[in-house]
Design goal:
mainly alpha; about 325 residues
């Protein structure tokens, strides 16, 4: 982790790989609902259920099965079996995406206006911001509550990711943005106006973030997974700006160049997924981990120094 704390690796890991990725993905997911061939609330709701379940399948593949293999090889129950319940039912981006799609489907079922949807999502963001860092004193309780609010135990271990209340505004705003964009007649004029404004807001922010490294979003020790309401504004501005840049690039480049860019992006995504798959959950610090070397520190938003260390690098020769 020290290698990722400074320089270009830090930029890719914590800046580009942080607020530019998951919030942008959720914003795009909401916007793409407008262009989907299946826009009925039932279709969206069923899709949400499927993605929610898929999140647990992913947990089985990247945590549970590797843990069982690790236990079968080593016999180390403390390392591989103790955290297996938490890792299997841990909420990640897929679980949140599923909940968000189901929520948007219910909004459509109730025929809520765009302003009401954004208002509800903004209220959820404020409530989630105020409730950050809740600890109910038990691992199962924190696991269940962690789907909806930011949960951290007394040791400072982050037990919830992409929490519902804090993140709902991302896909909801994307959905409303997509509706407006689809109805907009002069998209060129819109992006010529929007992109410079987005860059003027976002670029100084990220420069400050890279220089000072004061929290994941440059606004104090705010945890990336528990994005606060001020964090949301920067994420939305960045997402709109990236939409605009993509629009101009895709419009003015030959189709072969666009296809090549897609292939490069797919290759990078595949490489990153393989890299993440190399992580064994036994190398991630847990609330019941008594090893002082994994004690949480403020710079990593509560996760221990040993968290997310690739087992390929952590094993002795």
């Amino acid at each position: 982790e020290e290698a990722l704390s400074t320089g270009l690796p830090y930029v890719f890991d914590s800046v580009i790989g942080g607020p530019m990725i998951a919030p942008g993905l959720m914003f795009a997911m909401g916007a793409c609902l407008v262009y989907s061939r299946r826009q009925g609330w039932k279709d969206i709701f069923h899709r949400g259920i499927f993605i929610f379940i898929l999140g647990f399948v992913l947990n089985l593949c990247r945590y549970t099965i590797p843990d069982l293999i690790g236990y079968a090889i080593s016999g180390d129950a403390e390392r591989y079996l103790d955290p297996i319940l938490y890792q299997t039912f841990n909420n990640d981006i897929f679980q949140f995406a599923g909940l968000a799609l189901m929520t948007i489907a219910l909004f459509l079922k109730l025929k809520l206006k765009d302003g009401v949807m954004v208002g509800i999502a903004l209220l959820c963001s404020i409530i989630g911001t105020l409730l950050n860092g809740v600890d109910v004193g038990s691992v199962p309780g924190n696991m269940i509550l962690g789907y909806f609010v930011g949960v951290e135990d007394a040791a400072g271990e982050v037990l919830s990711y992409f929490v519902y209340l804090n993140w709902l505004i991302m896909p909801v705003s994307g959905y409303v943005f997509g509706k407006l964009l689809k109805r907009m007649k002069d998209k060129d004029l819109f992006y010529r106006m929007a992109v410079p404004v987005c860059l003027l807001v976002a670029v100084p922010y990220y420069v400050l973030h890279i220089r000072n490294r004061i929290g994941m979003f440059g606004l104090g020790e705010s945890c990336y997974y528990h994005v606060t309401t001020p964090d949301v504004l920067i994420c939305l501005v960045t997402a709109i700006g990236m939409y605009g840049i993509y629009y101009f690039i895709g419009k003015h480049l030959p189709q072969k160049a666009v296809a090549a860019a897609y292939r490069i992006g797919a290759d990078m995504t595949a490489f990153y997924f393989i890299h993440c798959s190399c992580h064994l959950s036994g190398t991630v610090s847990h609330p019941w981990d008594t090893d002082s070397s994994d004690a949480g520190d403020s710079g990593s938003c509560g996760t221990g120094n040993g968290s997310f260390t690739c087992v390929c690098r952590s094993l002795d020769a």
